[in-house]
């Protein structure tokens, strides 16, 4: 498992948390569609350029798509920031967002595998990335009676982390922080035949050096390791934002065939890569994903 980040309660983090809370509070006073568009715009036009996120996204896009015109990279970077802002406020709009996702019918061959595992009391690890809205799939499945927990990486800003964890818990199912205590709870839930979500698209210094988007990327093999150890189904799933910017398609792919942890994790990377190449605007290009090649 990844080493947890240091929880920082500095004055600077307290102040930035107050600003974010203010933005969230203002947005939540608006009708749902308006708040989603508003926070998307604020993130795209103000936060991402000032925080350096736009530059980082464009740099990552240049690494993967060196022949792409700069104007296209800039357009995608703006859309990435917009999607990130929309995702943030959607995940704080628990009642509205979950009601909306309850109207979405999940599709794909992995749904039958999920239902079969639930009926047999077998554990399931659902794997996704920071794509579309990574909570959309969980919300749609929880609305259909599945109890799905998750493992999360605590944020450096401890003040923000405190209330963001509560938003994750509100979607249904327990959530566990990375680290010894959180991982223990995660494993116990899995052993009892539970269902859990893992995101695998962040740099993991101790991970396996695998391919992602044609570049070497350190990738945690935790999902595959746990699936092999506890006999869990390993199912990629995604919540893809639709053209109207407010709704989602939720798709569960076929379970990853059982082999070894590196091969299974590469299959997960390949699954996510296909989604990113189809909709590059919906992946979080802001992450420092390719530290293995970018010093």
Could you outline the blueprint of secondary structure elements for this entry?
Elements: H1 11-28, H2 32-51, H3 53-64, H4 70-92, H5 94-101, H6 109-120, E1 124-128, H7 136-142, E2 148-152, H8 158-169, E3 175-177, H9 180-191, E4 195-199, E5 208-212, E6 215-219, H10 222-230, E7 233-241, E8 248-252, H11 261-278
Helix pairs in contact: 1-2, 2-4, 3-4, 10-11
Features:
11 helices, 295 residues, alpha/beta, six-stranded mixed sheet, disordered N terminus, two-stranded antiparallel ribbon, globular
Description:
The protein has 295 residues and is of the alpha/beta class. 51% of the residues lie in helices and 14% in strands. The protein has 11 helices and 8 strands. The strands form 2 sheets. The chain has a 6-stranded mixed beta sheet, sandwiched between helices. It has a two-stranded antiparallel ribbon with strand order 5-6. Helix 3 packs across helix 4 and helix 10 packs across helix 11. It starts with 10 loop residues before the first helix and ends in a 17-residue tail after the last helix. Residues 1-5 have low confidence and may be disordered.
Order of helices and strands: HHHHHHEHEHEHEEEHEEH
Rg on CA atoms, Å = 18 Å
What is the number of E strands? Answer: 8
Low-pLDDT stretches are 1-5
Trace the largest sheet across and list its strands. 3-2-4-1-7-8
Shape descriptor = globular
What helical percentage do the residues reach?
40-55%
On the 0-100 scale, what is the average pLDDT?
88
> What is the makeup of the main sheet?
6 strands, mixed
Span between termini: 23 Å
How many alpha or pi helices? 11
The secondary structure category is: alpha/beta
Q: In percent, how much strand structure appears in the residues?
A: 5-15%
